[in-house]
Amino acid sequence: MAMEFAEKAKEAFLDDEFDVAIDLYSKAIDLDPNCAAFFADRAQANIKIDNFTEAVVDANKAIELEPTLAKAYLRKGTACMKLEEYRTAKTALEKGATVAPNKPKFKKMIDECDLRIAEEEKDLVPPTLPSSSTTPLATAPDVPPVPSPAAPAKPMFRHEFYQKPEEMVVTIFAKGIPKQNVTVEFGEQILSVVIQVAGEEDYHLQPRLFGKIIPEKCRYEVLATKVEIRLAKAEIITWASLEYGKGQAILPKPNVSSAVSQRPVYPSSKPGKDWDKLEAEVKKQEKDEKLDGDAAMNKFFSDIYQSADEDMRRAMNKSFAESNGTVLSTNWKEVGTKKVESTPPDGMELKKWEY
């Protein structure tokens, strides 16, 4: 039965009915999820309608199922090149060339990747420090945005993100998901998350990222109430959003104080500014900055958590999770020996969330 769907999918593909082909390949995969060729062929159909991130996911699955399937590497290389992920594409194509050394297309595409990588390196210009205190904005690369897959109207799980100078942390609030049901893959500027849920369609989060990352330094962890993903940034800049093309990157503030403080001081020198003192004042102002709404609340709880000991953190995590976010306790002796019941605010009624 699966082969019948696959044959019909091939006919639809030849008739340029790529959406129909994708749907038929999906049905074939549902019946035979271990057939690598189905994933590789669906990747090709996705490429035809510019679903490049989905094509990468399908190609990766095909490679996982059958590491010697040459066309899977070809599909991944093609999709990554369309996404301008030339280093990732080159790695996939080089592996494919070792599997099928007699196919000249691999060498041709590898040469093209080398050319594109050289152009990227040539265009890279190191940022110069601003002469004034105003922080300049780094404009995003002048390339048209690649269309991303349409998000489902009703996402199965909610996700949020926050960032540090060197990493972006993405949290998917998926409760009670087994670790083996979560697949996370990293590209130069791609994040792919697939969560398998029994009796329902798989959850997908596959954005093209705002900036480039270092895949080998990225990691993720499946916890009881969430999946936490840490993306190592290739550049220390502030991302305006998680996804590509939304806003402008902000360069980090130059640390002029350390350079100035190392200058020699001579007896005849005029009194200069105390840069260490100025820096301390700036940090104090940032610490005392008045935030509103959710930002203020998040900072308040973050400060408590950072200054807490291990027992207090355990108490906070346990009480928050078991009470569905209605109780936050720092007393481990009180909450460690019993289940924390949900306590809604006055005037509100607790209702069970139906997925």
Characterise this structure:
This protein is 43% helix and 11% strand. It is α+β, with helices and mostly antiparallel strands and 355 residues long. Among the domains are: 1-123, Serine Threonine Protein Phosphatase 5, Tetratricopeptide repeat, CATH 1.25.40.10; 159-232, Immunoglobulin-like (Sandwich), CATH 2.60.40.790; 294-336, no CATH class. The strands form 3 sheets. The protein has a 4-stranded antiparallel beta sheet, with no helix packed on it. The longest helix has 20 residues, at 104-123. The two termini are 32 Å apart. The model is unreliable at 131-135 and 256-261 (pLDDT under 50). Residues 130-141 have a biased composition (Low complexity).
Label this structure with key terms.
355 residues, alpha+beta, Serine Threonine Protein Phosphatase 5, Tetratricopeptide repeat, Immunoglobulin-like, four-stranded antiparallel sheet, three-stranded antiparallel sheet, 12 helices, 9 strands, 11% strand, Protein SGT1 homolog
Helix and strand layout, with pairings?
Elements: H1 2-14, H2 18-31, H3 36-48, H4 52-65, H5 70-82, H6 86-99, H7 104-123, E1 137-138, E2 158-163, E3 167-173, E4 182-186, E5 191-195, E6 203-205, E7 219-222, E8 227-232, E9 249-250, H8 256-261, H9 275-287, H10 293-307, H11 310-322, H12 332-335
Antiparallel strand pairs: 1-9, 2-3, 3-8, 4-5, 5-6, 7-8
Biased composition (Low complexity): 130-141
Family: Belongs to the SGT1 family.
Region (Disordered): 124-146
